[in-house]
Structure formats: C-alpha cells, structure tokens
Design a protein that fits this description.
368 residues; alpha/beta; Rossmann fold; 13 strands; 36% helix
Length: 368
C-alpha cells in the first residue's frame, strides 16, 4: 500500500490526502513496496515505465492514459571522458516530464480535477501537459521574469498562469497561500515525493544504457528534484547489490544563488540565508529551498560536493555546447560549466568518466 510518511514524527497519510505537509510541519516521504527492475529485459519499451516494479504501483489503464513515452533519452559523447544525457528530448523538452508523469498518474487515481503548481517554468510546463492529458485543470504560478517561451508553452497546454512579481521563493509562498485558500491539490514537484519516483529513473537508465554508472555525476540543484531522485536511485542500486560503490556526485548552484553550496562549504546541514542575484540558470534560482536540509544531508551521505558557476561560465558553456550540436537552455549549460569548475578544483577527475544532465531544450531559453 502506498502511503505518505513523515520521518520526523512517524505519522502516515493516505495518498488521496490533499495535505502536502505533515501535521507536525515536516515534509512527506513516500512508502510503498518495490522490487528490483528487470534491467535490459524489456526491449520493446523505451519509456521509464519499463521499471514499473520499482515505481509506484499505478494501474495499467492510468499509465496508458497519461504517458507520452517519457524516458529512454540518449547518452551523447561530448568529450573523451564526458557524456551528456539528453533529457531535453522529453515530450515537453525537459527532464521534469519524469516526475510530472508520476504526479499526473497520482492525480488520476485519487480523483483530482484541479491542481496548482509553482515553478520557474519547466516543471509547470510538464505538469500542465500531463494534467491536460488527464483532463485536469492546472493553476500555474511562475515568477514574472520567467521566459516568454516557457509561458507560451504552459498556456498552450491549458495552464492558467499567475505571474508573481518577485523571486522564485516569493512565487512559492503565493502558491501555498492560494492552495490553502482554495483547498485544491498542490501538484508540487518540491513538496510531493511522487515526483522523485520519476526523476530517479534518470539513474536507472544510465545504469542500463552504459552497463555501469559513470565515475562522476554532475547534478544541478535548485529545489533538488533531480538530486533527490539520483540519491534514491543510488541507494536502491546499492541495496539491490547491483553496484559496489556509487559515483562522485557533484551538485552545482549558480554563484549568485547558492544557499546550499555556501552551507556545505561551512559544514552546515542548514541552508544559508543568501541575497539572490538574477541568474541565466533560472531553473536553479532558488534562495530558500524547502527541502534544503534534506538535500544537504543527501550530498553528505553520498560523500559528494558542491561547486558554483558564474554567469560568464554559463554563457561560455552554452555556446560551447551549441557548437557541439547540443542546443540547451542556460540551466543545462550550467552543468558543463560546473564540470569545468570541478576539473580546475580537482585535476584527478580529468581521466574519470563523467556525465552531465542536459535538462532542458535551448528553445526554452529567455535570451539568444
């Protein structure tokens, strides 16, 4: 049986609950029975649903209703030792489809007819698209600075946009006020742990496609939806005795918005309070991550590290990727910038097999 679990006080809630936090104020985890996927067995299914034994047990008819074949994105060689996973080739052009498919399936099976989400753009686009397939109305809250291209895509999927003047964090607060006032379902990619059950398939696919995992994984961190998925998958693969050790996980933040990188540098498990500067990497422009302590704990547990990247480094990497034939948005380009920073800090990484996530398509970018 699937249930929400509060690890702070031990209380559980049914998945049909509209609560998005425990009564004690802590955020939920997800509890359900899972088994080892049959890696390499399902040759005719290239979607992430081929890992169903390790995913939430949704009904077949639910999956058929919402799926667009998300998952199975290719791995691209970028350099001798560097590879990229092309999640910009997802149905809505970003990796967020992995988690949005899970949230849509959850909403179908719990009878949700209307939901709300806050986002810097990609998560809202993905949720709006998958919700539309399920006949669910979506209220979308985004910062007013969000790329016009992302807003156009959200509206095309039927999302009703609420532009919030202010930061990504102020947008989140406005959404929570709206949800509390209207009691509609909060389809949050941050608060709802079903989202991670989708993003963890990123690692499953790497394990299957490469035959083993890279030595180094670069992971962008704003609210940590990919990082937490990576963490869960690595822990599962270890528990199933499929890997003896896990890759070095290098989490990245933009230099002008780095509450977690600063905390990690200081040996703290509590995010730092930072003044946020605008960044081209809008997908990680989060100054107050709701699961900040949990993200820091995960990176510590993995023996990982943080790096930060400047706007100039992001722009340079964006252009360099384009000249490799890979046109991604600036948040995705920040991953290449982070890899280069990590190499400068630790030259021993140069001969190790590394992989960056190519998280979103360049057509979503706000500027040329």
């Amino acid at each position: 049986m699937m249930r929400y679990l509060c690890k702070q006080c031990g209380k559980t809630y049914p998945i049909a609950s509209k609560r998005y936090t425990c009564e004690c104020g802590s955020l939920f985890h997800l509890s359900y029975s899972k088994t080892v996927p049959a890696f390499g067995a399902l040759k005719n299914d290239h979607s992430l649903w081929r890992y169903r034994s390790a995913l939430p047990p949704f009904e077949e008819k639910t999956i058929k209703r919402i799926t667009m074949g998300e998952g199975g994105t290719p791995v691209i060689r970028l350099d001798e030792h560097l590879f990229g996973k092309a999640d910009y080739l997802m149905p809505t052009l970003s990796f967020k489809d992995r988690g949005a498919a899970m949230l849509a399936a959850l909403m179908v099976e719990t009878g949700v007819r209307r939901c709300a989400i806050d986002s810097s753009g990609n998560a809202a686009t993905a949720v709006a698209a998958y919700a539309a397939r399920a006949g669910i109305a979506t209220e979308v809250f985004v910062p007013s600075s969000t790329s016009e291209k992302k807003l156009t895509q959200i509206e095309a999927h039927g999302g009703r946009i609420h532009l919030i003047e202010g930061s990504r964090d102020q947008t989140a607060r406005a959404t929570i006020d709206f949800v509390n006032g209207s009691e509609i379902f909060y389809a949050s990619h941050i608060f709802n742990p079903f989202f991670w059950e989708g993003t963890k398939t990123y690692v499953y696919e790497l394990f299957e496609q490469l035959g083993s995992l890279p030595d180094v994984l670069i992971v962008p961190v704003g609210n940590g939806t990919l990082l937490m998925g990576v963490y869960i998958a690595l822990k599962e693969l270890e528990a199933w005795n499929l890997i003896d050790s896990h890759p070095l996980v290098i989490a990245l933040q933009a230099a002008g918005c780095a509450p977690l990188a600063q905390a990690y540098e200081q040996g703290s498990l509590s995010p730092r309070s930072v003044s946020v500067s605008p960044t081209l990497a809008e997908g990680i422009a989060t100054g107050e991550p709701a699961r900040g302590a949990q993200i820091l704990e995960a990176v510590h547990d993995l023996g990982g590290r943080f790096v930060t990247v400047t706007e100039e480094e992001i722009l340079t990497s964006h252009g360099d990727l384009a000249r490799m034939g890979v046109y991604v948005e600036h948040t995705a380009a920040a991953n290449l910038a982070a890899y280069r920073v990590a190499l400068k800090q630790d030259p021993t990484l140069a001969d190790k097999k590394a992989l960056i996530p190519l998280t979103g398509a360049g057509l979503k970018s706000a500027i040329r």
